[in-house]
Specification:
3 helices; FASCICLIN-LIKE ARABINOGALACTAN PROTEIN 1; alpha+beta; about 25% helix; single chain; about 90 residues
Length: about 90
């Protein structure tokens, strides 16, 4: 507990800097779980979910499967036009 009755939180490796504060209790189930609101997000590499690499999408297959086969065929017939609709994965 900090001065003025505030509760402070901080990431494990931040030299004891407690710059995130308790705001309010959102849900309490005694002896089970409590959900609280804090003043800002605590950074954590452990909590970060791994994200899969984006997969290539074939836009003309998607269009054909959703009622746009004529337009998809037109794109396939014109490579310059199809460049406009290519999905770029970054």
């Amino acid at each position: 507990m900090l001065k003025e009755g505030k509760w402070g939180f901080g990431p494990e490796d931040n030299e004891g800097n407690l710059d995130v504060f308790y705001v309010k209790s959102l849900e309490e189930i005694p002896y089970n779980i409590s959900v609280i609101q804090i003043s800002k997000v605590l950074p954590s590499d452990v909590a970060a979910a791994p994200t899969p690499e984006p997969s290539a999408m074939n836009i003309t297959d998607i269009m054909s499967a959703h009622g746009c086969k004529v337009f998809a065929d037109a794109l396939l017939a014109n490579p310059e036009a199809s460049k406009t609709y290519q999905v770029i994965n970054k």
